[in-house]
Write a structure and sequence with these properties.
- The chain is an alpha+beta fold and 480 residues long.
- The chain has 14 helices and nine strands.
- It has helices at residues 16-21, 45-49, 100-104, 164-176, 186-193, 214-238, 242-261, 270-295, 302-322, 325-340, 351-369, 378-397, 406-441, 458-474; strands spanning 2-10, 30-40, 51-58, 61-69, 78-86, 112-128, 131-144, 147-160, 180-181.
- It has an eight-stranded antiparallel β-barrel with strand order 1-5-4-3-2-6-7-8.
- The protein is globular and about 75 Å long.
- It starts with a strand and ends in a 6-residue tail after the last helix.
Amino acid sequence: MNEEVELKLELPRDAVEAFERSALIPGEGDRAELNAIYFDTPGSALRALGYSLRIRRSGGKRIQTVKADHGESGGGLFARGEWEMPVKDDQPVIDTRTPLPSALGDAADLIAPAFHVDVERRTWMVEEQGARAEMVLDKGVVRAGDREAPVCEIELELKEGEASALFALARRIEAAAPVRLGIEAKSERGYRLLGAAPASFKAEPVTLKPGSSPQEAFRTIARACLRHYRLNENLLLDHYDPQALHQARVAVRRLRSALTLFKPILPDQNAVRFQDELRWLARELGEARDLDVLIDSIAPGPLHDRIEAARQQAHADILKMLESRRVRGLMIDFAEWLTLNAAPSGGGESAKAFAAERLRHFYRWVVKHGRDMAELDDEHRHAVRKKAKKLRYASEFFASLFSEGKKDRKRHADFIKALEALQDRLGALNDMASMAGLLAKHGVEAGEQAVEPAGKDKKKLIKAAAKAHDKLADARPFWS
C-alpha cells in the first residue's frame, strides 16, 4: 500500500486561462485524456466502508485504484491509503492485493459501475521550498445516468519533502487565480449525483479514535467543521439558498466553539486571529440569516416589500463576500495552520479525559447561570443560550468517546434532548428580544406594524425555559 499526500484546490472555469498563463506553469507539461469508471454495490457498501474503487483508462492502459480514507481529509491535506494495479479491461479485480474482499465479504459479487469521470489532465513537476510536487489541472465532468457535474480543480501531490511546501505552492497559485480549498474527491461528486440534489449539508458525525490525544481530537473536529462550511459555501456560490446559508453559519459557529473548547491546548496566537476572522464571517452570514427568518413573519404589504428588498441586497452582499480573497484565503490559511502548526503534542492526557473536563466546565456554567430564569434580563438569558450552544456542540463533538454501549448512547441521547429543549426556548426568547432592533435597523419605526415572533407570550416562554433548565440540571451527564 502507498499513501498519497495531496492538497486539492477548486478553480473556477473562467479562471483556468489566468492559471495557465501564470509564471507557475513550467512549460507544456504532459497532457492526457482520462476516462474512469467508479464501482460500488447497489447499496453503496464500498462508500459506507470508506473505500472507493475505480478503473481509469488513459491511452491503451487501464489502472485499477482502490483508495481508503484515513479520516484526515476535508480540511487540509488528503491522506489516503492507495492500492493500484494494471487490469486488462473494465472488469474490477477483487482479490487479496486490496482490502476489499475482507471488507465486503459476499457483497463483493454485487460490484457494478456506479458513475463515470472524464477529464482532460495537464501535469507538471514543480519544486517548492526544497520539495518536489506533482501539480495537476483536471477539467472535465462527472456523469451518473443523465445527470452530470463539472470538474475543474488543481491537485498538488507531494513526491518528496515537507507538506508545508504544498501550502506554499497553493499560496502562489491563489495569487494568480481565485482558487478555494478543495474538500471533495471526484468520487464524492459522483455519489451525490446518484441521489437528490441537496439544498444544504448538515454537520456529519465526528468519530474520534479511542485513545486519541486532545491534539488529534482537535484536528479531527476542526477538519469536520471546515468541511461542513465548504460544502455549504459551494452550494451558495452555485445559487443562494437560505438553508445552505444557515448551515454555513452553523459550521462557522461550530468551528469557533471548537477553538474555544480546545483553548487550553492552543497556545498559538494564530488561534486568536482565526477566532476573530471567524467571528467576522459569522456576523456577516448572520445578517442575511436574520432577514431570511424575519421575512416569514411579516404579512404581504409595504413592510414586507421593504424587508424583502433589504434581504435581496443582503444575499448579493453575501455572494460578493464569499468571492473575496479574504474569505478564500481564510480557509486556506486555517487548513495550513490546522495541518502544520495547530495544537502541538502535549502530555499524556487522553482526549476522553480532556473532553470530560471541558464538558463538565460548560455544563456547570449553564446550570449555575441559568437558575432563576424569570429574574434574568434578556442579555443574561442570551449569554446562557450561547454557552448552552457551545455545550451542545461539545456534546456532539465528543459523543463517540462516551458511546461504548447501548446505555451510554441512551444517556447521551437523553442529555442532548434536554439540552435541545433549553436551546429552543432560549432561542425563541432571543428572537423576541432582537426583533425590534432588527426592524429598526432597516428603518421600521415602532408601531409601524406589529410583528409577532413565534413565541408570542414572553412569560410563557420564560416559564418553559426555566422548566427546561431544571430538567437539564437534573439530567445525568453522559461523560461521568
